Structure to design on (198 residues):
Protein backbone atom coordinates (compact mmCIF):
# COMPACT_ATOMS: atom_id res chain seq x y z
CA UNK A 1 0.00 0.00 0.00
CA UNK A 2 1.51 3.34 -1.09
CA UNK A 3 1.85 6.41 1.15
CA UNK A 4 -1.21 8.11 -0.39
CA UNK A 5 -3.39 5.03 0.13
CA UNK A 6 -2.14 4.74 3.70
CA UNK A 7 -3.00 8.39 4.38
CA UNK A 8 -6.43 7.97 2.77
CA UNK A 9 -7.18 4.96 5.00
CA UNK A 10 -6.03 6.83 8.10
CA UNK A 11 -8.23 9.81 7.21
CA UNK A 12 -11.20 7.56 6.48
CA UNK A 13 -10.81 5.86 9.88
CA UNK A 14 -10.42 9.21 11.70
CA UNK A 15 -13.60 10.55 10.06
CA UNK A 16 -15.51 7.39 10.96
CA UNK A 17 -14.17 7.57 14.52
CA UNK A 18 -15.39 11.17 14.80
CA UNK A 19 -18.89 10.20 13.71
CA UNK A 20 -19.14 7.19 16.03
CA UNK A 21 -17.58 8.93 19.03
CA UNK A 22 -19.87 11.92 18.56
CA UNK A 23 -22.93 9.71 18.26
CA UNK A 24 -22.23 7.25 21.07
CA UNK A 25 -19.77 9.03 23.34
CA UNK A 26 -16.33 7.78 24.31
CA UNK A 27 -17.44 5.28 26.96
CA UNK A 28 -19.98 3.57 24.67
CA UNK A 29 -17.82 3.50 21.54
CA UNK A 30 -15.96 0.33 20.61
CA UNK A 31 -13.10 -0.14 18.17
CA UNK A 32 -15.28 -2.67 16.31
CA UNK A 33 -17.96 -0.01 15.77
CA UNK A 34 -15.40 2.42 14.36
CA UNK A 35 -13.94 -0.27 12.09
CA UNK A 36 -17.44 -1.12 10.80
CA UNK A 37 -18.24 2.56 10.19
CA UNK A 38 -14.95 2.99 8.30
CA UNK A 39 -15.52 -0.18 6.29
CA UNK A 40 -12.24 -1.77 7.42
CA UNK A 41 -11.35 -4.80 9.50
CA UNK A 42 -10.59 -4.39 13.17
CA UNK A 43 -7.07 -5.68 12.44
CA UNK A 44 -6.46 -2.96 9.85
CA UNK A 45 -7.76 -0.31 12.23
CA UNK A 46 -5.27 -1.54 14.87
CA UNK A 47 -2.52 -1.37 12.27
CA UNK A 48 -3.05 2.41 12.15
CA UNK A 49 -4.27 3.15 15.69
CA UNK A 50 -3.42 1.47 18.98
CA UNK A 51 -6.74 1.95 20.72
CA UNK A 52 -9.86 4.07 21.19
CA UNK A 53 -7.88 6.67 23.14
CA UNK A 54 -5.58 7.28 20.19
CA UNK A 55 -8.57 7.48 17.86
CA UNK A 56 -10.16 10.24 19.94
CA UNK A 57 -6.82 12.06 20.13
CA UNK A 58 -6.50 11.99 16.33
CA UNK A 59 -10.07 13.21 15.90
CA UNK A 60 -9.39 16.14 18.24
CA UNK A 61 -6.09 16.83 16.50
CA UNK A 62 -7.93 17.03 13.16
CA UNK A 63 -10.39 19.48 14.75
CA UNK A 64 -7.51 21.58 16.08
CA UNK A 65 -5.90 21.71 12.63
CA UNK A 66 -9.26 22.77 11.18
CA UNK A 67 -9.55 25.46 13.90
CA UNK A 68 -6.08 26.84 13.14
CA UNK A 69 -7.02 27.23 9.48
CA UNK A 70 -10.28 28.89 10.49
CA UNK A 71 -8.43 31.41 12.67
CA UNK A 72 -6.16 32.32 9.78
CA UNK A 73 -9.13 32.73 7.42
CA UNK A 74 -11.00 34.93 9.91
CA UNK A 75 -8.04 37.27 10.42
CA UNK A 76 -7.30 37.42 6.68
CA UNK A 77 -10.92 38.43 5.97
CA UNK A 78 -11.02 41.15 8.66
CA UNK A 79 -9.94 44.74 8.04
CA UNK A 80 -11.09 46.22 11.36
CA UNK A 81 -11.59 45.17 14.98
CA UNK A 82 -15.36 45.27 14.45
CA UNK A 83 -15.12 43.01 11.39
CA UNK A 84 -12.77 40.68 13.27
CA UNK A 85 -15.22 40.29 16.17
CA UNK A 86 -18.10 39.72 13.74
CA UNK A 87 -16.12 37.18 11.72
CA UNK A 88 -14.92 35.29 14.81
CA UNK A 89 -18.48 34.93 16.06
CA UNK A 90 -19.74 33.98 12.58
CA UNK A 91 -17.08 31.25 12.43
CA UNK A 92 -18.04 29.94 15.86
CA UNK A 93 -21.71 30.05 14.95
CA UNK A 94 -20.97 28.19 11.73
CA UNK A 95 -19.13 25.44 13.59
CA UNK A 96 -21.97 25.00 16.09
CA UNK A 97 -24.58 24.89 13.29
CA UNK A 98 -22.75 22.78 10.71
CA UNK A 99 -20.53 20.64 12.95
CA UNK A 100 -22.70 20.19 16.04
CA UNK A 101 -20.48 17.46 17.48
CA UNK A 102 -17.29 19.54 17.32
CA UNK A 103 -17.46 20.73 20.93
CA UNK A 104 -19.19 17.57 22.19
CA UNK A 105 -16.11 15.59 21.13
CA UNK A 106 -13.95 18.16 22.87
CA UNK A 107 -15.97 17.59 26.06
CA UNK A 108 -15.17 13.88 25.78
CA UNK A 109 -11.47 14.72 25.44
CA UNK A 110 -11.57 17.06 28.45
CA UNK A 111 -13.20 14.37 30.58
CA UNK A 112 -10.64 11.77 29.51
CA UNK A 113 -7.77 14.16 30.27
CA UNK A 114 -8.75 14.14 33.97
CA UNK A 115 -8.00 10.40 34.18
CA UNK A 116 -5.16 10.01 31.68
CA UNK A 117 -1.93 12.04 31.99
CA UNK A 118 -0.95 11.41 28.34
CA UNK A 119 -4.28 12.87 27.18
CA UNK A 120 -3.84 15.81 29.57
CA UNK A 121 -0.46 16.53 27.94
CA UNK A 122 -2.00 16.42 24.45
CA UNK A 123 -4.81 18.72 25.59
CA UNK A 124 -2.26 21.23 26.92
CA UNK A 125 -0.34 20.98 23.63
CA UNK A 126 -3.50 21.59 21.58
CA UNK A 127 -4.39 24.61 23.71
CA UNK A 128 -0.87 26.00 23.31
CA UNK A 129 -1.09 25.64 19.53
CA UNK A 130 -4.47 27.39 19.42
CA UNK A 131 -3.36 30.27 21.69
CA UNK A 132 -0.09 30.65 19.79
CA UNK A 133 -1.88 30.93 16.45
CA UNK A 134 -4.32 33.47 17.88
CA UNK A 135 -1.44 35.45 19.39
CA UNK A 136 0.47 35.43 16.08
CA UNK A 137 -2.61 36.55 14.17
CA UNK A 138 -3.30 39.32 16.71
CA UNK A 139 0.29 40.50 16.37
CA UNK A 140 -0.06 40.59 12.58
CA UNK A 141 -3.41 42.38 12.85
CA UNK A 142 -1.84 44.97 15.18
CA UNK A 143 0.90 45.62 12.61
CA UNK A 144 -1.80 46.22 9.98
CA UNK A 145 -3.71 48.53 12.34
CA UNK A 146 -6.70 46.19 12.57
CA UNK A 147 -6.46 45.79 16.36
CA UNK A 148 -4.87 47.79 19.16
CA UNK A 149 -1.12 47.43 19.42
CA UNK A 150 0.31 45.53 22.33
CA UNK A 151 3.67 44.13 23.28
CA UNK A 152 2.29 40.75 24.25
CA UNK A 153 -0.87 39.39 22.66
CA UNK A 154 -0.69 36.05 24.49
CA UNK A 155 -2.96 37.07 27.41
CA UNK A 156 -5.53 38.40 24.92
CA UNK A 157 -5.26 35.14 22.96
CA UNK A 158 -5.84 33.17 26.18
CA UNK A 159 -8.99 35.18 26.95
CA UNK A 160 -10.33 34.74 23.41
CA UNK A 161 -9.67 30.99 23.70
CA UNK A 162 -11.58 30.90 26.98
CA UNK A 163 -14.54 32.76 25.45
CA UNK A 164 -14.65 30.57 22.33
CA UNK A 165 -14.30 27.31 24.24
CA UNK A 166 -16.63 28.32 27.04
CA UNK A 167 -19.39 29.29 24.65
CA UNK A 168 -18.79 26.25 22.46
CA UNK A 169 -19.03 23.88 25.42
CA UNK A 170 -22.23 25.55 26.64
CA UNK A 171 -23.74 25.17 23.19
CA UNK A 172 -22.73 21.50 23.09
CA UNK A 173 -24.65 21.02 26.34
CA UNK A 174 -27.58 23.26 25.42
CA UNK A 175 -27.95 23.51 21.60
CA UNK A 176 -31.15 25.60 21.88
CA UNK A 177 -29.01 28.47 23.17
CA UNK A 178 -27.57 28.84 19.64
CA UNK A 179 -30.99 29.95 18.35
CA UNK A 180 -30.96 33.11 20.44
CA UNK A 181 -29.74 36.02 18.29
CA UNK A 182 -29.05 38.12 21.36
CA UNK A 183 -26.44 35.57 22.45
CA UNK A 184 -24.47 36.12 19.26
CA UNK A 185 -24.85 39.90 19.52
CA UNK A 186 -23.43 39.76 23.05
CA UNK A 187 -20.64 37.43 21.91
CA UNK A 188 -19.60 40.01 19.28
CA UNK A 189 -19.62 42.77 21.91
CA UNK A 190 -17.52 40.81 24.41
CA UNK A 191 -15.01 39.53 21.84
CA UNK A 192 -14.65 43.05 20.43
CA UNK A 193 -13.90 44.33 23.96
CA UNK A 194 -11.18 41.70 24.40
CA UNK A 195 -9.71 42.44 20.95
CA UNK A 196 -9.66 46.16 21.74
CA UNK A 197 -8.09 45.52 25.15
CA UNK A 198 -10.92 47.23 27.03
Amino acid sequence: MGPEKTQDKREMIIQAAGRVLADKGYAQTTVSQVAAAAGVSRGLLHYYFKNKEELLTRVIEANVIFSLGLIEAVFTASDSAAALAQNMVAALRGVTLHQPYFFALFQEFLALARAKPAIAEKLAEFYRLFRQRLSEELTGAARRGVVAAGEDHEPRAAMLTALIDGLGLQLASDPDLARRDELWTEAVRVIRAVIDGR
About this structure: The mean pLDDT is 92. The two ends are 56 Å apart (CA to CA).
